[in-house]
Design a protein that fits this description.
By secondary structure, the protein is mostly helical. The chain is built from seven helices and no strands. The chain starts with a helix and ends with a helix.
Length: 109
């Protein structure tokens, strides 16, 4: 995507997008939302460089897992609950949860 394409997608002048890329300014809140949507990236990644860049990476894996016909009803319920909880967590909270989860799973081996 070119600067001109991105500018058009978010309703800004190409010069504004160019200025952001040169660190000559930062996008305001509304512009951040437009950038996240236009580029299909996560806000946390754009602002802080934390976690995966693309929003759908985690959701695609989850969706394919949910579609597995061998998945039990109980596991489907757990998966939906985890997705809801994870969507409300910060990246730091999600990372701490995952470390705890890994320790629990290691104990079960």
């Amino acid at each position: 995507m070119t600067q001109a394409d991105l500018a058009k997608a978010i309703g800004k002048a190409p010069q504004q997008v160019s200025a952001w890329e040169r660190d000559e300014g930062i996008p305001r809140h509304a512009n951040l939302s437009a950038l996240v949507k236009a580029l299909n990236i996560r806000r946390e990644w754009l602002l802080l460089g934390i976690g995966p860049m693309q929003a759908e990476v985690a959701m695609e894996a989850s969706a394919s897992y949910r579609a597995d016909p061998t998945l039990s009803a109980a596991k489907r319920i757990i998966l939906r609950a985890l997705e809801a909880d994870l969507s409300r967590m910060t990246d730091e909270q999600a990372e701490a949860w995952f470390v705890s989860y890994q320790k629990t799973m290691d104990k079960l081996k």
